[in-house]
Amino acid sequence: MTVAWPERLRHGGSAALEVCVVAALYYGSARLGLLQQLVRGQVTPVWPPSGIAVAALLLRGPRLWPGIALGAFLVNVSLGPSVPAVVAIMAGNTLAPLCSYALLRRAGFHEELDRLRDALALIFLGAFTGMLISATTGSAALVLSGALGGAHFWPTWTVWWTGDATGVLVVTPVLLVLRRARRPSGVPPVRWAEGVLLAAAAIGIGVLEASGTPLLFLAFPLLFWAALRFRLAGAAPCVVTVSAFAIFAATRKSGPFAGHDLAANMITLQAFNGSAALTALLLAAILGERAQTQREIELACGQLADMVAKITAGDHHPLLARGPSGTAVPGTGNAVAHEGGTGTAAGDAAGHPETGGSRTEGSRTRQRPSPHP
């Protein structure tokens, strides 16, 4: 009992610390997302806290939901519009990632994202389906509180839903990659140089996105390069980089965002961020699944080669060593004699003429009574 209490206190303190860390990350990322606000300072084209919440639940379990609720409350309490609306928005922002977590676990989701089904599950279950709750709850709360008119419900709902879904697609894969990040050993210098070049290219293309020239499409060759050479570990950070520069360009209304109204810019920004995330995520998952299949094939071939080698070596086994006439080969007499004895017994049971068949027939003849007196 004296040992259980300190252990229980240590476990409770660790859980409380994790909840506080999640709340802090949620609040800090929400403040960054609100820099590109669209409706009443609460609806943004990209909502990073949704991605942080889903990743936290996947990595540490549903016991961290108080941290999500606390972070959502701290963010929305300063924005209003009323206490009931804040509570409703907080509830929606908490239930949405919990729903995504439950759907992903039900689908057998793997955090490694090394299968195509994992990428599709994160897209359609974790992002598109789960975030329906937060968008619907939040938009309805704003309308019912009088902060929005009824005519603005669907535009607000669309931006809210796409922003939360994009946050899951952009942020969650990066956090899942960072969870498994290790310093690689035995990597040749050429590989390190390629990684540095990829990072420099991502920053350079991001700068071009924010410039006056509309060059958003240059991000897609970069994402292909990152996914082909570095899988999700390279593709996910590149998505975050190009998305961040695109948001910066949309804020300044430069490049492809120049000369358009706010709604058009938000649609363009969300379409670009969503397309970049989907491209990188699906391509990296397909390549990872292909590599896993190739490793399984190589393993099966190796096992088959070992079996063939053992069978070939077993050709000289004593039980199999017989001459052309069926006599034992010198050096294997015991095994052959044993096998021959077994064959004789079998012959007796089967009534083979060369073994016990004649003796059996003869015994039957002797037992048959004579017809003559």
Mean pLDDT: 81
| CATH fold node name of the largest domain | Arp2/3 complex 21 kDa subunit ARPC3
Low-confidence stretches: 332-373
What global shape is seen?
globular
Helix content: over 70%
List the domain count as a whole number: 3
Largest sheet: none
Total number of helical segments?
12
Radius of gyration: 35 Å
Assess the beta-strand content as a share of residues. under 5%
Count of strand segments: 0
Look at the structure and give the CATH class of the largest domain: Mainly Alpha
The CATH architecture of the largest domain can be named as Orthogonal Bundle
Q: What is the first-to-last residue Cα distance?
A: 101 Å
Helix/strand-derived category reads mainly alpha
The H-and-E topology, N to C, reads as HHHHHHHHHHHH
Summarize the structure.
With 373 residues, this protein is mainly alpha-helical.
Keywords:
373 residues, mainly alpha, Arp2/3 complex 21 kDa subunit ARPC3, 3 domains, 12 helices, globular, disordered C terminus
Task: Write up this protein.
It is a single chain. The chain is mostly helical. The chain folds into 3 domains: 7-176, Orthogonal Bundle (Arp2/3 complex 21 kDa subunit ARPC3), CATH 1.10.1760; 191-316; 319-356, no CATH class. Helix content is 73%, strand content 0%. It is built from 12 helices and no strands. Helix 2 (48-60) packs across helix 7 and helix 3 runs antiparallel to helix 4. It is globular, with a radius of gyration of 35 Å. Mean pLDDT is 81; it is low at 332-373.
